[in-house]
Amino acid sequence: MLIETETTPNPATLKFLPNRIVMDAGTRDFATPEEAEASPLAQALFDLGDVTGVFFGRDFVSVTAAPGTAWATLKPDVLGILMDHFAAQMPLFRPASADFSVPAEEEAFADDPADADIVAQIKDLIDTRVRPAVANDGGDIVYRGFDKGKVYLRMQGACAGCPSSSATLKNGIEQLLRYYVPEVSEVRAV
Known about the structure:
The chain is α+β, with helices and mostly antiparallel strands and 190 residues long. Helix content is 34%, strand content 23%. The protein has helices spanning 33-36, 40-46, 71-87, 116-136, 165-180; strands spanning 4-7, 13-17, 28-30, 51-56, 61-65, 139-147, 150-157, 186-189. Helix 4 packs across helix 5 (165-180). The radius of gyration is 18 Å and the shape is elongated. The model is unreliable at 97-104 (pLDDT under 50).
C-alpha cells in the first residue's frame, strides 16, 4: 500500500493520502486526545505523543505535529499507523455505546430569516469555491453564521492555526464573498 504525503501551508501539518476514501461524507476534526477516543485511528495518532491535531477529509488525513517536533522523526510513525489501519480495513470510528459521545458543535450564530437569500449565496460560494481549495491544503472551512454584514467561519484541519489562514480569510475568502455578495462587509474566524 502506498500513502502519499503533501505539505500544507501550515508547516506543522502534513496531509496523508492513502489512495482511498477516508470519509464517505463530511469531515471530522480532532483537536484533543479526548475527542480522538471516538476513532481508533485518531487515537493511535495522538498516542504517538507528538500529535496535536488529526483531521479526516474525503480522501486524506491531515496530522498536526506539536511545536518543536521534527517531521523527519514523526512521519515514519504516522505512515506506519496509517498503513496498518487501512491495510487491515479497520473501522474509522468506534461503534456507539452507552458512554460514547460526539463533541457538541459550538453554537452557530442565529441567522436572521430576512437574510435567507444572502446566507444561501454565501453557503453556495463556500461549498463550491472555498471548501475544495481549502481541502487541497488539508483542511476544511465551516460556515458558522452571518450577522450585519459579517460572515463567521471556522477553520479546521491544517487550516486551523496555520500562519497564512488570516491572509486566506481576508485576501481570499473575504474578497470573493464581497465580490459576489455585496451585503458581506467582513469575514471573521471563530
